[in-house]
Structures are given as structure tokens and as C-alpha cells.
Amino acid sequence: AKERGRNSVRFFNQQMQADVSARSDIATGLRQALLQDEFVLYFQPQLERNLGVVGAEVLLRWQHPQHGMIVPASFIPVAESSGQILQIGRWVLEKSCLQLAEWARHTDTAHWYLAVNISARQLHSSAFVQEVVSALEQSGAAPEKLVLELTESQLLQDIDTIIDKMQQLNTLGVRFSLDDFGTGYSSLSYLKLLPLKQLKIDRSFVRDLLTDPNDKAIIKTILALGQSLELAVIAEGVETEAQYSKLLHLGCQQFQGYFFGEPMPQTSFVTRYRQRHEM
Ligand code: C2E
Ligand code: CA
Ligand code: CA
Ligand code: CA
């Protein structure tokens, strides 16, 4: 037992060593990525019941010179623990606001909003409100076109400070959406304290909606909650027509998922979804 213990400790240390150097490689890469402009924003459509595109969620990609396109799961956790998420998040906000300002200049794209993911560290940083305000001011983007996506777990600490920050931004017109809703551990009582506009049903509930009665019950509950708290509800991860029609039938107001469109570069997004004004 002692021998095995020692081996597993050694194994664990080697594993940790490998993880540490992989993580520090990524951290070094991320510093480069910011300097060399290797990050790209992808856009995934959000639709209303009539299937009109009302906006997009901004999803970050890292266009690595050697490794190709890297998805957030491979670098956001490292950026979170190294603190680089603060700079990356600010870059995402600035770019998103510049994009909004650009879309606002064309009649066929001017109605779109952008939903930007905010990490816990960003939200808890004392500079957060000012960063959002300067991104808006420097780009000239309308605050009403900016939605910030938070997750429940970010709201467990310092709730009073968070509410204060949200209210400051809300006063300017910025809206908040609660992402991955239903997967957190927090109580529902704070929901009415927060200046939220939207709940986003986590895709884990949408996935088995047609086969798992529990998931259907959870979705119905979230929709009822949205109605009584006067919050819009959007479902993410909609992959099939059957999921879409079920959600429609249950009264869901907005939709996002591969069934309607995958995350894509800006030019593809505009080509595919801009409003055409036929004569
Ligand atoms: P999320 O906020 O829950 O974003 C939705 C994720 O689901 C995206 O993954 C999206 O590509 C994926 N998705 C969309 N439709 C479908 C579908 O129909 N089926 C399935 N299975 N998946 C779908 P992605 O782009 O890999 O992003 C993963 C996570 O990384 C995001 O989860 C978000 O938490 C984080 N993230 C992405 N961009 C940013 C960012 O700019 N800042 C921060 N802090 N986090 C980001
Ligand atoms: Ca999100
Ligand atoms: Ca989500
Ligand atoms: Ca999710």
C-alpha cells in the first residue's frame, strides 16, 4: 500500500508538472495572442419566435499561428487563473462595441444587439463598470445594444457590490442576461434583486427535452419563472427542429443553437442574416 502510495504521488507530481508547463505555455501564448492580434470574435445568431435574427452572442476564438483555431475551453480556464482574462475580456468588450457601432451605420444590420460573456474576475474587478463605459464611449455604440451574460456562480460573492455595478450599467441602458440558468447552486430569492432582463436556459436541459420529462419540467419552470419575474427567456443549444417546435409550444421567446446557425465570423454572419430590403 505504501509502495502504491508513493507511486501514485510520483505519478501525480509528474502529471502536475506536465499540466503546469502546458498551462504556462498557454499563458505565454496568450500574451503573444493579445500583442499579435490573434483573437477573433465569432457570432452566433439569436432569434425570436418568428425566426427573425435579433442579435448575436459573441464567442471568442484564438487563431493560433501553428495550432489553428482554438476554442475557449482550451484557453479561458488558463486565462482565468493567470488573470489574463481581464485584458482579454476588455479586448472582447472593446471589439464588440466597435462592431455594434459599425453595424449601426448600415440599415440592414442596425437593429442587432450583441451579447458578451463576462468572466467572474472581470465582474468582480473594481474597474469593470468604467471599462464597459469606456468601451461604449470610445466606439460610440448604443448601450441599449449591449447585453452582458453573467452566470449564477459569479453572483455568489459580494452580491451587493455586483448589484450596484449592474444598476450603474443598467441605468445607461446596458442589459444583463443570466447564462447557463438552472445549473447553478444559488437560491432563487436573489433573482428579483438583480436588474436582469433575460434568463438563458442551459443547453443541458434542451438536449434531452424530448425524451427526459425532468428536463421538460425544468424548462417549463424556468419559462414560468421568467413570466412571473417579467424576464425574457432564451434557450441555448437548440440543435433540431423538434427541439425548436417543442420550445415554441412551451412558450419560449428566443432561441440560439446549431439548428439556426453555428458561431461564425462577422462577414459570414452579415451575409447570411442581414435584412434584405427587396423592392
Ligand atoms: P457559453 O457562454 O455557454 O456559450 C455557448 C457555447 O455553446 C459556445 O461554445 C457555442 O459555440 C456552443 N453552442 C452553440 N450552439 C450550440 C448547439 O446547438 N449545441 C451545442 N452542443 N453547443 C452549442 P464555445 O464558443 O466553445 O464557448 C464555450 C464557452 O466559453 C462559453 O460558453 C463561455 O462560457 C466561454 N466564452 C466564450 N467566449 C467568451 C468570452 O469572450 N469571454 C469569456 N469570459 N468567456 C467566453
Ligand atoms: Ca454565454
Ligand atoms: Ca450558456
Ligand atoms: Ca452552457
List the helices and strands and how they pair.
Elements: H1 2-36, E1 39-48, E2 53-64, E3 68-70, H2 76-82, H3 85-104, E4 113-117, H4 120-124, H5 128-139, E5 146-151, H6 159-172, E6 175-181, E7 198-201, H7 203-207, H8 213-229, E8 232-235, H9 241-250, E9 254-255, H10 266-273
Parallel strand pairs: 2-4, 4-5, 5-6, 6-7, 7-8, 8-9
Antiparallel strand pairs: 1-2, 1-9, 2-3
Helix pairs in contact: 3-5, 5-6
The chain binds ligand C2E and calcium ion (CA) (3 copies).
Residues 44, 59-60, 71-73, 76, 89, 92, 117, 119, 179-180, 203, 236-239, 257-258, 263 line the site of ligand C2E.
Mean pLDDT: 91
Q: Tell me, briefly, the overall form.
A: globular
How does the helix and strand content classify structurally? alpha/beta
In spatial order, strands of the major sheet run 1-2-4-5-6-7-8-9
Q: What kind of sheet is the major sheet?
A: 8 strands, mixed, barrel
Spans where pLDDT lies below 50 across 5 or more residues: none
